[in-house]
Amino acid sequence: MRNLVKKFLVAVFAISTLFVANSSADDINLWKNSTLNKILQRGELRVGMEPGYMPFEMKDKKGRIIGYDVDMAKKMAKEMGVKLKLVPTAWDGIIAGLLTNKYDIIMSGMTITQQRNLKINFADPYVVVGQTIMIRKELAGKIKSAADLDKPEYTVVSKLGVTGEIATRKFFKNAKIITFETESDAVSEVLNGKADGVVYDQPYNIVFMSDKGKDKLVHLDTPLTYEPLGWAIRKGDPDFLNWLNNFLRQMKGDKVVDFHGKLNEKWLRDTKWLKRVQ
User: Fold this and answer.
1) Could you tell me if residue 16 is inside a domain?
2) Torsion on CA atoms 262, 266, 269, 272, rounded to nearest 10
3) Could you tell me if 73 and 151 lie in one domain?
4) What InterPro entries does this protein's entry cite (predicted)?
5) Which of 61, 144, 228, 244 has the fewest CB atoms lying closer than 10 Å?
């Protein structure tokens, strides 16, 4: 009996040792293939973004990319101890660019959606926004909500391929809908009187109303949707995702990205930066 017990314990120990060895090997391979490890080895963080979404990423008068996400990317690269490389990318190909390894992460004011999450992973949200409506000044008082604007005689516009278009098609079943390649083209349609309202992200609309839309448009600022923004990475990379979420937690704790944080104040409330892009 003692010999049987001894053989059993030896077998269990051998299996346990093999399991631990295999687990350790798997962990090593996982780390080697991690985007985070590749960034550290390369000495450079490559960030994909579309520089046309105020105030998150845009070009200043000298052609430099600036904005909320750019400042965050700089902090991220600094904490990694690597250089930062911004990769300007058209929105309609930004996920494909990530999947084909043109950059390590998307930091471009991207809304976390279930459809996108099927293809890519998101870190925890760093900002929560929603879609709001800007309408022609002549409609003030007459149009107080999306329901008032959802009539056949009205035209509503948005940007193609973004959550603004999704919200527009969800809330407007009777109005005429037109989409444009850029948000500026969509807003121009309303400014020129060719459309009655534009649906787009709340931060962009707030900034626009403080400048070009002032005295020309009316902002219906109650959000139609709940939209958390997050950084996107390729699937199957728990090490990178863990680092990003811990980095974000630190930034929130340091009052950098919370509601009253430094970046929120600099880019979402103060509009001094507009002078740099006009």
Assistant:
1) no
2) 160
3) no
4) Iontro_rcpt_C, SBP_3_CS, Solute-binding_3/MltF_N
5) 61
Position 208 in a domain = yes
What average pLDDT does this structure show over 150-161?
Answer: 96
Contact between residue 186 and residue 180 where contact means Cβ atoms under 8 Å apart: yes
* Residues 193-205 pLDDT 10s: 999 999 999 888 9
- Pick from 73, 41, 35, 69: which is nearest to 55 by CA? 69
Among the three residues 220, 243, 269, which one is the final residue of a domain in this structure? 220
Q: In terms of residue numbers, what domain contains 59?
A: 35-128+228-277
Do residues 128 and 202 lie in contact, with contact meaning Cβ atoms separated by under 8 Å? Answer: no
Give how far Cα 218 sits from Cα of 106, 143, 236, 264, Å: 32, 10, 45, 23
CA distance 231 to 161: 18
Of 190, 220, 250, at which residue does a domain stop? 220
Average pLDDT of span 157-162: 93
pTM: 0.75
3-class DSSP state for residue 100?
A: coil
